[in-house]
Design brief:
CATH superfamily of the largest domain: Mur-like, catalytic domain
Structural class: alpha/beta
Oligomer: single chain
Number of domains: 3
Strand order of the largest sheet: 8-7-9-6-12-13-14
Helix content: 25-40%
Largest sheet: 7 strands, mixed
CATH class of the largest domain: Alpha Beta
Shape: globular
Strand content: 15-25%
Length: about 475
């Protein structure tokens, strides 16, 4: 089969392209931003990439067009379509489908699908679960919205029956407004957490809960005629409401004091309990209670496939996390009087206020006395750009000693939103100016955490160069 992917350079669609190529299909694709590293990865797989969405791509004559959710029926100021290729496909009556639908029909059929959903931690928990199953010899396939460092790739078919997939609640395509995850038909579904997000497509939390319940509806039942499992974070009231709306599968909980899977001890060195009995121990480099909860979810998911929690916990001891999850981008020696040391620069994907807070809290727990956190962030997601959660920013940044906000492109007042932080917050709409301000403030022992769901203008490299010059 020849598939042509519209929006191929997105994280999900790029992973789908890699899986399709590995499965023996001919794959071509187009996007508005064909640039490294995704372009290099795809071309290395023998995938032809085309810049833009021009209608002349119909000449490729694929068997089907796979449409990413970046594509819309939008028109430019001059009235011409933003995606002329899509208009040509519709006009010619050619076959097309969404990425999640194609994946479901051509990759996931016959597999034991483990789908990991939640507002936060999807990528990390998907990577953890994949690594546990790999460590246990089950050779899973996976599709992760990032690059797990244990594997070095974001997607693979795998030789075993399990397939682990990051289950996103964002909509499927312009012609299918259901969440992506309803297409995956998991046998094991993890509901990691649930908060309001994606204000560009959801009106309120209840509308997201409804989509999560649609996912629950697709999981096989429990007992003699079924073997489905729903794994739920017992700390989340929103998820309790989701299950209260109806659940037909075996349920396992984690996180709360009375749960099937719990943890005792600090987040980087803890015992795992299953129904009150210690069944494993995790000692690793990760920090934060959020990662401890992610670990419990992954252990519970792997246990459904027969992996003993003790072995799963042992596997997590060699888990190397995911790119852009508190990834150290570099350190700069800094000697100031009697206080020599290093300044460390991190890259992190956190962009929702809760994710920012848990990331910074986790780092704070492992720092030595006197070491500071400098938070550098841009409100770049659609939800943050709309200003829906601006009031939560001071709360999310409470663990930082200083906060630096890049405010370019916002339709709301970042200075006013961060006013409760007083002189601990700095705002600039010029990235180079922000880099200078961070450099001036930095001192030995500081940890500079750059947080964005985009490239952030290469701020990490700019900061490291500026600090080195200083």
């Amino acid at each position: 089969m020849h598939i042509h992917i519209l929006g191929i350079c997105g994280t999900f669609m790029g992973g789908l392209a890699a899986l399709a190529r590995e499965a023996g299909h001919t794959v071509t694709g187009c996007d508005a931003g064909v640039y490294p590293p995704m372009s290099d990865q795809l071309r290395a797989l023998g995938i032809e990439l085309i810049e833009g969405f021009d209608a002349d791509q119909l000449r490729l004559q694929p068997d089907i067009y796979v449409v990413g959710n970046v594509v819309s029926r939008a028109r430019l100021a001059n009235g011409s379509p933003k995606f002329p290729l899509m208009e040509a496909i519709l006009d010619a009556g050619l076959p097309y489908t969404s990425g999640p639908q194609w994946l479901s029909e051509h990759i996931l059929q016959g597999r034991h699908v483990i789908a990991l959903a939640g507002t936060h931690g999807k990528t990390t928990t998907t990577a953890m679960t994949s690594w546990i199953l790999e460590y246990a010899g089950l050779q899973p396939g996976f599709l992760v919205g990032g690059v797990p460092l244990n594997f070095g790739v974001s997607a693979r078919l795998g030789a075993g029956r399990p397939f682990v997939i990051e289950a996103d609640e964002y909509d499927t395509a312009f012609f299918d407004k259901r969440s992506k995850f309803v297409h995956y038909r998991p046998r094991t579904a993890v509901l990691n957490n649930l908060e309001f997000d994606h204000a560009d497509i959801f009106d309120d939390l209840a509308s997201i809960e409804r989509q999560f319940h649609h996912l629950v509806r697709t999981v096989p039942g429990a007992g003699v005629h079924g073997s489905g499992r729903v794994i739920v974070n017992g700390l989340e009231e929103s998820l309790a409401r989701v299950l209260h709306a109806g659940c037909w599968s075996e349920v396992r909980s984690f996180g709360a004091a009375v749960s099937d899977f719990t943890a005792t001890g600090p987040a980087n060195d803890f015992d795992v309990q299953q129904q009150g009995q210690t069944v494993g121990h995790v000692n690793w480099e990760l920090s934060g209670v959020h990662n401890q909860l992610n670990a419990l979810a992954a252990i519970a998911a792997a246990e459904h496939l027969g992996v003993a929690p003790a072995l799963a916990a042992q596997a997590l001891g060699s888990f190397e996390n995911v790119k852009r999850r508190m990834e150290v981008r570099g350190t700069v020696p800094s000697g100031q009087g009697d206080a020599p040391g290093h300044i460390t620069v991190y890259d992190d994907f956190a962009h929702h206020p809760t994710a920012i807070r848990t990331t910074l809290d986790g780092l704070r727990q492992i720092l030595k006395p006197g070491e500071r956190i400098l938070a550098v962030f841009e409100p770049r997601s659609n939800t943050m750009k709309l200003g829906t959660m601006k009031a939560l920013l001071p709360w999310s940044l409470a663990s930082a000693d200083l906060s630096f906000c890049h405010s370019a492109g916002l339709g709301w007042d970042a200075v006013g939103a961060l006013e409760p932080l007083g002189d601990k917050a700095v705002v600039s709409d010029q990235l180079d100016d922000l880099v200078k301000l961070v450099t001036q403030a930095a001192r030995a022992g500081d940890h500079i955490v750059c947080m964005s769901n985009g490239g952030f203008g290469g701020v990490h490299t700019k900061l490291l160069q500026s600090l080195q010059n200083k």
